[in-house]
Amino acid sequence: xxxxxxxxxxxxxxxxxxxxxxxxxxxxxxxxxxxxxxxxxxxxxxxxxxxxxxxxxxxxxxxxxxxxxxxxxxxxxxxxxxxxxxxxxxxxxxxxxxxxxxxxxxxxxxxxxxxxxxxxxxxxxxxxxxxxxxxxxxxxxxxxxxxxxxxxxxxxxxxxxxxxxxxxxxxxxxxxxxxxxxxxxxxxxxxxxxxxxx
Length: 198
Known about the structure:
By secondary structure, the protein is mainly β.
């Protein structure tokens, strides 16, 4: 019995040490520009609406690959303005977005690809036509679920650039088939990584 307890204790110490050595958490900020429009069977003829996004992120790093992390789990929380423009006006949807991204860094560079789901909480919804703005939040769904695909590059300083395509799986409207779709591009900064040890 004493031997089993000793082996178990050594195993727990080894696992704890391994996890401590291989997993790290850093926090950062991000911001940029969205170019979004609508897709779907009932989507109106529209062009891309250019609008900002800004918020924060956490990077949970796993493993190493010749001095640079192999995988990163990156949850984010940010404000995002989306929508679409038409000849007669525009529709603006504001969300609190919560993406859960998995990033894979390539070889020993700062280049990575990413994918993951995104959950959005609708904050406001407005339609502007012929100079008149109408609140359409009651006609819009309160939650939006999207899938994201992207790529980026993070420098040793912690500064990085990112581009991401997102497609809404759920409709933004309660009464029709209209989905968010568009590209987000911007910069980010991860604190505590201003070093040359990658």
